[in-house]
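Sequence of Sortase family protein (Kocuria dechangensis).
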Amino acid sequence: MLREDGSTAVFAVERGEQYAKDAFPTSAVYGNTAGAELRLITCDGYDPATGLFDDNYVVYAKLVA
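Predicted 3D structure, token representation.
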């Protein structure tokens, strides 16, 4: 990500977590953080019987530079 000063923001992935849609930790995923962080939220847990995704997968990343 290019910053206003021309430098590049670099984020490092810390972890990924799978959550059931009915137990999604909204505050933990969308809440405030002490520093710059990113969250990638996508679908997971595909059920071919229903054609639906039962879960979400969240990737957590923090600013390193």
